[in-house]
Specification:
It is found in: Membrane. This protein has 604 residues and is of the alpha+beta class. The chain has 13 helices and 29 strands. It has 3 domains: 260 residues, no CATH class; 104 residues, Phosphorylase Kinase, domain 1, CATH 3.30.200; 190 residues, Transferase(Phosphotransferase), domain 1, CATH 1.10.510.10.
């Protein structure tokens, strides 16, 4: 269900250690900023052990990590947290991959930390050196949890320094994380694994000489988890082999070759296939129109809904934007970037095929629409999702990518209203890592332009920040960024919003549909962020990481006022490790001792 190379970039199936698994970037699921990521020191060699063979995970997973950072006081005041939406009614296996890769940490008790799963202490005093046996040696830990209730819930996974043993470094790390959906917990073969929450003695592992005694239920969990992993691996191999056959020649077209080395992960469609998928481009199937051309809803593979974007031959956008979008979406995969399924470059046509986004564009839910208005909380969640996607483009790639066309019509919403950044035809990569800006012709959408970019042709990552903030005003006020039908002082939403804010009356132009929902604390954070993001000089604007963290704080303040103390619906029911477990608690007693600064634990 989830497989993350924590702190590192995505690992393609061909680079996996034998099972053709796709390891993705974890940053879309981080609560707050991205914190500190790093790779192994040059003098460190990653080594598998007899209990952690090569097929468990590739070396690249263990060769990168995410930690809390070097500041002791800061680390003691927050948790390094991931939030993963899961379906209730299922049992989940969680596998934590751990490996110390920094040469200062060579002995036990250099760094120890808690592992929390959904407000429960899964383990304290986690010492990776003790688990693995030394610097650069691999290890992992398995936990099994049960999600009860209805619909979907968020699984909260968090790490926090454990200073009870007085370690040298006050920090926590993680190298990789896998989450597997095993089966519904109502089925008989695993139904007996869930212990009552009132039990205490039975849920603590008993220590014996040389290790800990695994209970009967723990043994069943380990066997069941291992069997599930084997089935998943076999299934993954079959799927990847089939996809390789389908996409073997996808880089080659009738008109030449496309320059994107990762294009084997998307399909090449013939024009006749696209015609069938769209009922010969039936106008009744048009779901959008833009600078590129029309967007149709179609069906492939016996019923899978897709969005088909066809280039209008009279459009100003052409083959350059077409290839740029393919290269972008082939090379970068992220939970908050729209997924490219394939393309067609046949019969002088240029067509892109994407995952179908059920709820269309964000703009379609704000104004001039028959759709029901979005709640304020949902708007915040969408803002955070879009910010995560842009943050990944800015920092999660080797040189950094500038989107250049951030607006409400390029933010798509899936069936759960999760935001997906789209339309990468105008995106620009930095030519070198140390470049602070790119000099280029002005492209984008009027009303969202960064003044520095528009006047000086100086494009920076802060140009996206400016456009993003204009979009936030649009979300707050539910009106177009440029409206020539209004009085002169109100034509530009950005200028009008800043004018109102300077006079302390910004709340008067807030969308009436959400005005009464916004808590004062949340509104204050949102308003303060506004002025910084739309500063005329890029140097005075925050980074996308800063924007993301402020939006996360705004959401927490909104939730703290409305939803304090909701109980968790996820329970740990078992665990397994490649090493004996000597510091674990699996009980509800730990609820409330972590996430002390996070009061709302459901549906983020």
């Amino acid at each position: 269900m989830y497989r993350f190379n924590v702190g590192g970039q995505a690992i393609s199936p061909k680079d996996d250690s034998g099972f053709y698994r796709l390891w993705t970037d974890d940053s879309p699921y981080i609560f707050g900023g991205s914190r500190v990521t790093y790779s192994k020191d040059n003098n460190v060699t990653i080594r598998y052990t007899p209990v952690v063979p090569k097929y468990i995970a590739p070396l690249d997973v263990y060769g990168t990590a995410r930690s809390m950072g070097p500041t002791t006081q800061v680390n003691l005041n927050y948790n390094l947290t991931w939030i993963l939406p899961v379906d209730v009614g299922f049992i989940y296996l969680l596998r934590f991959h751990l490996c110390e890769i920094q040469s200062p940490i060579t002995k036990e008790n250099k760094r120890t930390f808690y592992i929390y799963i959904n407000n429960q202490t899964a383990q304290w005093a986690t010492d990776v050196i003790s688990l693995s046996g030394g610097l650069g040696k691999t290890s992992y830990r398995d936990y099994v949890i049960m999600a009860s209730g209805s619909g979907q819930v968020d699984m909260w996974i968090a790490l926090h320094p454990d200073i009870s043993t007085k370690p040298r470094y006050v920090d926590a790390i993680l190298n990789g994380l896998e989450v597997f959906k095993l089966q519904g917990h109502e089925l008989n073969n695993l139904a007996g694994l869930k212990p009552p929450l009132q039990q205490k003695p039975d849920v603590e592992p008993k220590s014996v000489a040389g290790g800990a005694r695994m209970s009967k239920s723990g043994l069943l969990v380990a066997i069941g988890g291992g069997f599930a992993l084997m089935l998943i691996a076999i299934f993954s191999m079959c799927v990847i082999c089939r996809r390789k056959k389908v996409g073997k020649s996808c880089c080659k077209t009738n008109n030449g070759h496309l320059n994107h080395p990762a294009c084997d992960i998307v399909r090449q469609f013939s024009f006749s296939q696209i015609q069938i998928a769209t009922n010969d481009f039936d106008e009744e199937l048009i779901i959008g129109r833009g600078g590129f051309g029309n967007v149709y809803i179609g069906e492939i593979d016996g019923g899978t809904k897709v969005a088909v974007k066809q280039l209008n031959q009279e459009s100003q956008q052409g083959s350059h934007e077409f290839q740029a979008e393919i290269e972008m979406l082939c090379n970068f995969r992220h939970g908050h970037l729209v997924s490219l399924i394939g393309y067609c470059q046949d019969s002088n046509e240029m067509i892109l095929v994407y995952d179908y986004m059920v709820h269309g564009t964000l703009r379609e839910h704000l104004y001039n629409t028959r759709n029901s208005p979005l709640s304020w909380r949902r708007r915040l969640e969408i803002c955070i999702g879009a910010a995560r996607g842009l943050h990944y483009l800015h920092t999660g790639t080797e040189k950094g990518i500038i989107h250049r066309d951030v607006k409400t019509s390029t933010i798509l919403l899936d069936e759960r209203f999760m935001a997906k950044v789209s339309d990468f035809g105008l995106s620009k990569a930095f030519p070198a890592i140390d470049n602070t800006h790119v000099s280029t012709a002005v492209k984008g959408t009027f009303g969202y332009f960064d003044p520095e970019y528009f006047l000086l042709r100086r494009l920076t990552k802060k140009s996206d920040v400016y456009s993003f903030r204009v979009m936030l005003f649009e979300i707050l006020c539910a009106r177009p960024v440029i409206n020539t039908e209004l009085p002169d002082e109100q034509v530009s939403l950005r200028d009008w919003a800043l004018y109102c804010q300077e006079r302390g009356v910004l709340e008067e132009i807030v969308d009436p549909c959400v005005k009464d929902e916004i808590t004062p604390e949340c509104f204050r954070i949102f308003a303060e962020l506004a002025e910084k993001c739309v500063a005329d000089r890029s140097i005075d604007r925050p980074t996308m990481d800063d924007v993301l963290q402020n939006l996360e704080v705004a959401l927490r303040l909104q939730d703290n006022n409305n939803c304090v103390g909701r109980p968790s619906s996820l329970q740990i029911i078992g665990m397994h490790s490649d090493k004996p477990l000597t510091h674990s608690i699996i009980s509800a007693a730990a609820q409330g001792e972590i996430f002390s600064d996070i009061m709302h634990l459901e549906g983020r």
